[in-house]
């Protein structure tokens, strides 16, 4: 099979994995209502499912002996996701919401409205997770992903989730479950597993045909493909009036990717073979939530992002591409 055919397989597999994740969302949304979780805390909880394709991909890449694809996926998806989702959310929120009359103020001010609590509940703890990854994997004596690192990062996610739930708890509601929802959830789990297998398999073959490294394939093929379907979810959720939930869920997704999806790669002792490529990418992984936290913290009466701040996120990603092309990969 040539690269184009494998690209088709990659698209279908990514769609299947995210279809599966969507089927698992319903039972978790019911649990969120039952437990009385707020939008920010609920985002951290629902990310268990929305980030499941990335976790499954890294399990598959570790099992198949191509953990560099998983490492590239881990870094690449966490760099592109925040600027991409914030840009999509900004344009999706440029309409009036009947259930939110105060939103007109944000429209007039050209601001993407956000709950300021999302910084303390999600983005600052996520920055702490990234700092912990740097401490565990960058120093020369500890360089690489090792089993002990994986267990530490699992503990970090448990603390992240517990903190989000404790800080965002309200009175719960009574919910009902249907057999259809249960069966769709089971089908979703199988779709995620199958999609992850073929995403990794397709990436392996594409990088082989194009003669590029597996980690670069993970960064710019797998990482982008696993993030792209989230565009539709973000657009749909924000269009429905849930601006904070639609925009902040990406932070929670990334926290899972850097912890739970980190775990299978650490178990198989994934080395850092190109240190410059690794630290540059990890630096940009940290830059995105840092900008997020600073911009929301600086906002005054109307919390969120102005149009120019949205463009700064996009410029940061463009800068990343230029740094990778000119200084890391030396393509030009």
Describe this structure in words.
Its main location: membrane. One of its GO terms (cellular component) is membrane. It comes from Flavilitoribacter nigricans (strain ATCC 23147 / DSM 23189 / NBRC 102662 / NCIMB 1420 / SS-2). With 332 residues, the chain is an all-alpha fold. The chain has a single domain (3-328), classed as A middle domain of Talin 1, CATH 1.20.1420. 77% of the residues lie in helices and 2% in strands. It is built from 14 helices and two strands; from the N terminus they run H-H-H-H-H-E-H-H-H-H-H-H-H-H-E-H. It has helices spanning 3-35, 39-50, 52-63, 67-92, 103-109, 117-137, 147-167, 179-210, 214-227, 230-239, 243-259, 262-267, 275-298, 307-328; strands spanning 111-113, 304-306. The protein has a two-stranded antiparallel ribbon with strand order 1-2. Helix 1 runs antiparallel to helix 8 (179-210). The longest helix has 33 residues, at 3-35. The model has no long low-confidence stretch (mean pLDDT 85).
Which features characterize this protein?
332 residues, mainly alpha, A middle domain of Talin 1, two-stranded antiparallel sheet, 14 helices, transmembrane
């Amino acid at each position: 099979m040539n690269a184009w055919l494998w690209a088709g397989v990659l698209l279908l597999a990514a769609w299947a994995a995210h279809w599966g994740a969507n089927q698992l969302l319903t039972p978790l949304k019911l649990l969120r209502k039952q437990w009385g979780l707020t939008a920010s805390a609920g985002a951290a909880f629902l990310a268990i499912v929305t980030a499941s394709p990335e976790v499954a991909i890294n399990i598959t890449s570790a099992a198949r002996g191509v953990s560099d694809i998983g490492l590239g996926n881990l870094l690449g998806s966490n760099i592109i996701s925040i600027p991409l989702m914030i840009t999509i959310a900004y344009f999706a929120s440029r309409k009036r919401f009947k259930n939110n009359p105060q939103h007109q103020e944000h429209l007039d001010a050209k601001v993407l409205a956000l709950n300021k609590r999302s910084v303390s509940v999600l983005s600052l703890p996520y920055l702490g997770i990234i700092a912990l990854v740097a401490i565990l994997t960058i120093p020369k004596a500890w360089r690489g992903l090792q089993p002990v690192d994986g267990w530490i990062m699992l503990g970090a996610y448990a603390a992240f989730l517990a903190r989000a739930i404790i800080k965002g708890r309200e009175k719960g509601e009574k919910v009902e479950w249907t057999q259809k929802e249960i069966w769709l959830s089971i089908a979703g789990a199988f779709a995620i597993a199958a999609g992850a297998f073929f995403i990794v398999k397709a990436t392996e073959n594409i990088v082989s045909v194009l003669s590029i490294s597996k980690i670069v394939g993970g960064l710019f093929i797998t990482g982008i493909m696993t993030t792209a379907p989230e565009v539709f979810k973000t657009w749909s959720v924000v269009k429905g009036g849930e601006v904070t939930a639609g925009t902040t869920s990406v932070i929670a997704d990334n926290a899972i990717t850097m912890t739970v999806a980190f775990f299978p790669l650490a178990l198989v002792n994934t080395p850092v073979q190109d240190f410059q490529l690794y630290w540059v990418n990890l630096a940009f992984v940290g830059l995105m939530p840092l900008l997020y936290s600073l911009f929301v913290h600086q906002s005054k009466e109307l919390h969120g992002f102005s149009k120019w701040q949205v463009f700064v996120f996009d410029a940061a990603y463009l800068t990343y591409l230029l740094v990778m092309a000119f200084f890391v990969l030396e393509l030009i």
